[in-house]
From TrEMBL:
Catalyzes the conversion of GTP to 2,5-diamino-6-ribosylamino-4(3H)-pyrimidinone 5'-phosphate (DARP), formate and pyrophosphate. Keywords: GTP-binding, Hydrolase, Metal-binding, Nucleotide-binding, Riboflavin biosynthesis, Zinc. This is GTP cyclohydrolase-2. GO terms for molecular function: GTP binding; GTP cyclohydrolase II activity; zinc ion binding.
Amino acid sequence: MSFTPDITEVLARARADLRMGVPVVLAGEGDHAVLMLAAETCDAQRLADLRALGGAPVLAITARRAETLKARAYDDDLARVALPGDATLAWVLGIADPADDLKTPMKGPLATARTGDAGLHRLAIRLAKTARLLPAALVLEMAGGKDFAAAHNLTLVPAALAGPVLEATSNLHPVVAARLPMEAAEAGRLHIFRPEDGGEEHYAIEIGRPSRDKPVLARLHSACFTGDVLGSLKCDCGPQLHGALAQMGEAGAGVLLYLNQEGRGIGLANKMRAYSLQDQGFDTVEANHRLGFEDDERDFRIGAQILKSMGFSEVRLLTNNPRKIAMMEEHGVKVVERVPLKVGETEHNRGYLATKAEKSGHLL
Ligand SMILES: Nc1nc2c(ncn2[C@@H]2O[C@H](COP(=O)(O)OP(=O)(O)OP(=O)(O)O)[C@@H](O)[C@H]2O)c(=O)[nH]1
Ligand SMILES: [Zn+2]
């Protein structure tokens, strides 16, 4: 038995620190380490403190973001923008956040570095992403990172242990289930699942008493606060959610997973940043890229894990998204049938649905 936090627990702490603007130390090979701050939550004092340490801090961004900024990414998916001597917090935010890109088209020329531990820089961006912040991190290479972390009471993340944990899907545990009569079906039951990594909980809504021996009518729904709760006309999520529940109610059985992967996994704040870019004329995929994200950052392995833990191994999947089908099949859930789900097209979301069909391979 040990009271010392394990790597999963350390990562959860690191995420909380970054959201609060507290720096984190990432330890690499031997004595090598980097000090990181999430660009989005860094304040002027911490930026000044970082500079006072000397060395050559960089702003690590994704190649997606670098492309918009016309900055050279020397390391495939990663670019390290050198901090000019007079870089202010506004400069840092201007690189990290595309909000004023159109107003300030020339943010450069930006010098990008080829040196430094690319693995640690990638880890810094990954941590910012998992904290649902903009994918940009201020990073300073340092020796003696362990002592520095201890002296300043900072979370120390050993990179070699962190990598595999961040790649894997966290185990989920059932917390509680209770009866929930709904408009769509009186015989409803809501199950709560909690991941071991301290991340968002996910839900399963079981309708009727679906047999575990036959393919179940199933839907993997990704959280969409704007569509599900506010009835946004920009997407089709609300009608899809209610349509799927109604279809299961009519059939007398089904299971809908409500996965808390808002904004295709980038979080609601970043999704609203994407919406703001969409108002500047970019489509849903371009907006994600300009922010530095991939088109879709969701992890559908979570869905397969929940279905299996509930005893379902075969599904009739309500979806238009071929990626969901592939991920289920790859992770032990057989999709015996795809059941199309086409509801809620409006004049506001027609372009959005067309982009998903053209660029993300959605079936019409
Ligand atoms: N980043 C981003 N996320 C969005 C946008 N519009 C909707 N979302 C999110 O997209 C997710 C819904 O995914 P969809 O692509 O509509 O549908 P799908 O679940 O992949 O596929 P289907 O099963 O066919 O519905 C939810 O998490 C929404 O919050 C957007 O413009 N940008
Ligand atoms: Zn939506």
